[in-house]
Specification:
mainly alpha; 5 helices; Helix Hairpins; about 65% helix
Amino acid sequence: MMVLLPLLLILKINNMTIADAQKQIDDWIKAYGVRYFNELTNMALLTEEVGELARIISRTYGEQSFKKSDEKYDLADEMADVLFVLICMANQTGINLTEAFKKNMEKKIHRDGDRHSNNEKLKQ
């Protein structure tokens, strides 16, 4: 089973839903991770991953320049690291991210339906 599991995990990536991602990460944790890190550790890890993402953004789109040690960083990979830890936190706290995202989008549609289109700062 341990040899077959990585192949099955890779095959599930195409057309993945948020629920699929939550299940795949839970399967990975059970097969390779022993257990989830506690919530506080995962919060620290999320902060660390967001910092690595910010480092790339500030050097790619901001005014900072890359150092030799920055060459190993990949924007897409860092975003995926953030997503991985965020999904771990959702799994361990019982959050269904699909439902949470749907509710969040509904909130944004009702709250911000015309706010941005009426923002003069965005029309420049």
